[in-house]
Amino acid sequence: MLKQFHSVLDENYGKEEVNAFFDVLMEHHLNDKRIQLVLNPDYTITSAQEQLFLNALNDLNNHIPIQYIIGETEFYGLPFKVSKHTLIPRSETEELVSFIIEDVTSSTVEKSIKILDIGTGTGCIAISLANNLPEANVHALDVSEDALRVAKQNAKLNEATIEFIHDDILNPSHAVLISVSHTFDIIVSNPPYVRNLEKAEIKPNVLENEPHLALFVDDENPLQFYKAICEFAQIHLKTGGALYFEINEYLGQEMVQLLQGFGFKSIQLKTDIFGKDRMIKAVKLVE
Question: What is the pTM of this model?
């Protein structure tokens, strides 16, 4: 079976990634490791199990991500369900979560804080923060009811208490569901930020499968979600509160200028492990 995977997939994915796919499938479908194929030459599977592998092989050959095939992934050491209605959580977003946790835990004052995750998708940011900051009161918003259904499953799976909100941050009224009196210490978002002109850089398995609603923005208005969130923060972020964003690697300076234009201070532009501008933090101060 492994030879068949290599024969069909190596040209598109490379040998090492195909091995990784097979590892994931053995763990998921057989609760076993690939090393058993070496240690046990007589290792056999049922015809039903074989069909599961053949179905996965066909899906991988059609550029469907392995996470969608098995319906799950791992993020920040936690299990998460994924579906075609959610983006697959990525390592860059784990860095954003670490950025926030390090900031909060480095404070000498232990206190309960309120956090809002805008565009929560699978809930990976909100749930990871809730599990690592037990004193936090975490809310999560998304425009997609389908995504929120997955996020709620993930909150239950990871025993995280999250208040979910169905709304559109681009709605000028900023949601009936969030009252003017509702303010937060931290607002975080990984909104759509890939411009259409950058589609050529996107791998087929992402471009053909992950929800474009959560990925792409118009070339003419690439910061539209960040602008909307900055406007929202004028009302709903506490004085002294912080905004955290994952950003387009090509628009770091534009993001600095945007935040400055809204009066935010102490702006930090951070690179990811690949040296790309990927995260930014800004603080709301008294005028």
Answer: 0.90
Q: Report which DSSP code applies to 26.
A: I
Q: Is residue 110 within 8 Å of residue 135, measured between CB atoms?
A: yes
Query: How far is it, in rounded angstroms, from Cα 157 to Cα 150?
Result: 10
* Per-domain residue ranges of the chain: 2-62, 84-283
* pLDDT by residue, tens only, the chain of 287 residues: 889 999 999 999 999 999 999 999 999 999 888 777 767 878 888 999 999 999 999 999 999 999 999 999 999 999 999 999 999 999 999 999 999 999 999 875 557 899 999 999 999 999 999 999 999 999 999 999 999 999 999 999 999 999 999 999 988 765 555 555 578 999 999 999 988 888 888 888 888 888 888 888 888 899 999 999 999 999 899 999 999 999 999 999 999 999 999 999 999 999 999 999 999 999 998 65
Which candidate, 120, 115, 141, 104, places its Cα nearest to that of 246? Answer: 120
CA angle 185, 129, 175 (to 5 degrees): 55
Architecture of domain 84-283 in this structure: 3-Layer(aba) Sandwich (3.40)
How far apart CA 183 and CA 174 sit, in angstroms, is 13
Q: How far apart are CA 142 and CA 126, in angstroms?
A: 12
Q: How many CB atoms lie within 10 A of CB 228?
A: 19
SS3 36: helix
The amino acid that residue 4 corresponds to is Q
Q: Report yes or no: 159 and 62 within 8 Å, Cβ to Cβ.
A: no
31 burial type by CB count under 10 A (0-12 exposed, 13-18 middle, 19+ buried): exposed
User: Count of CB atoms within 10 A of residue 8's CB?
Assistant: 15
Contact 153, 125 (CB under 8 A): no
Give Cα separations from 157 to 115, 123, 140, 160, 267 (angstroms): 20, 11, 16, 8, 35
DSSP letter for 183, please.
-
